[in-house]
Amino acid sequence: MASRKTIYVDSDVLVIGGGFGGCGAAYESRYWGRDKKVVVVEKANIERSGAVAQGLYAINCYMGMQWDENKPEDHVRYARNDLMGLVREDLGYDIARHVDSTVHKFEEWGLPIMRDPENGRYQREGKWQIMIHGESYKPIIAEAARKAATEVYNRIMVTHLLMDKNKPNRVAGAVGFNVRTGDFYVFRSKAVVVSAGGASHIFKPHSVGEGMGRTWYAPWSSASAYALPIRVGAKMTQMENRIVLTRFKDGYGPVGAYFLHLKTTTENGYGKSYENTWYDSIKAMVGDYVDQQPVPTCLRNHAFLKEVQAGRGPIRMVTKEAFKDPHKETIGWENFLGMTIGQAVVWASQNIDPKEINPELVMSEPYVMGSHATCSGAWASGPSDYAPDDYQWGYNRMMTVEGLFGSGDTIGGTAHKFSSGSFTEGRIAGKSAINYVNDLGNDQPEVSEDEYMSLKELVYKPLENYTVGRNEITSGTVSPSYILPIQGLQRLEKIMDEYVGGTSTDYLTNEPMLLRGIELLTMLKEDMSHIGADSLHQLQRAWELNHRVLASECVTQHTLFRKETRWPGYYYRGDHPKLDDKDWHCFTLSQFNEKENSWSMEKAPVHHIIDK
Amino acid sequence: MSTFVYMTSCDGCGHCVDICPSDIMHIDPTTRRAYNIEPNFCWECYSCVKACPQNAIDVRGYADFAPMGHSVRVLREEEKGTISWKIKFRDGREKNFVSPIRTTPWGSIKGPAEYDDPNTQEYATQQLAHEPDALKIDSLPTISRNQFVEGPL
Question: Distance from A287 to chain B by nearest Cα, in Å?
Answer without folding.
Answer: 12
